[in-house]
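Lecture 7 notes: from sequence to structure.

We start with a single chain of 315 residues. Read the sequence below before looking at the structure.
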Amino acid sequence: MSGRRVKAPVKGKRPSKDRTPLLKLLVVLLAVFLVLAGLVVTKLAERYRDLVMDFVASEQAKYDQAHRQEDAEPEDVVTVGGQQVEIDRTLEPNQLQSDRFTRLEDGTIIYDGNARYGIDVSAHQGQIDWSAVAADGVEFAMLRIGYRGYSEGALNQDSRFEENYQGATENGIDVGVYFFSQALDEAEALIEAHQVIQWLEGKEIQGPVVFDWEYITHEQARTDDLEGDEVTACAVVFCQEIRKAGYTPMIYCNGMLGYLGYDLNKLSDVGVWYAEYRSDYPTYAYRIAIWQYTDSGKVDGIDGNVDRNIWFLED
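Now the structure, written as tokens:
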């Protein structure tokens, strides 16, 4: 044993330790916590954003549903006589394109497509110089063949029908006819059809035979209380009888009768002669065969105003 003495540790003190590894571990743990906390906050923010977006979309859908009728696009709803009417998509639509129509300085409208240009006349036009009419480019004429009185209901042939038929055909103008109806029921409409067929006996026509039922607005008429379904029934009977006789039936209407009166589903196999004056093209939602675009046209050979028409043919 050597004589070297070892110094004993002082009571109550411990040897010092290096805390660096512990601090490093705490720093790492804190960093991991911060990263995880950031991910959680990001996910919560994304979830909150999605909830807000879903809520906004839901409220927008509710708003759109509540205002769909009020704010409907023109192709879905049309306003006629102060009423909004939903367009029936089961019916054949109007395929005529507005940019194919041109209004000339004299008010004449021309169509860039397969069409013919004509007039419709009755005794109201008086005596007509049909050779001058033909020279002015008129290709067809719809002649009033007769009418039923709206007060007493008597049937009458137009006083100038025979004269107009002869003048038009002798000058190479194709002819169609229309009957101004005030039928109260199917029985009267059937009588009207038979009378028209009788008046046409022995005559050739190239155009349609038209059922022209109209509301009388300027004075009281026997048809004032007729409903749309009753008018439709009259038109169906008339057109069926005309077709049986070998002619092409058609109905005449404006927007009021076309949208609010006739049930066009029951007349889907019948052409439409449509009257609309304050437009440069026909805006009617459904397919039309003839467009009466003015009641104040001018044509050589006719004194005063005359209705002008475009007859659309198959392209």
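The first helix runs from residue 20 to 67. Keep this in mind for problem set 3.
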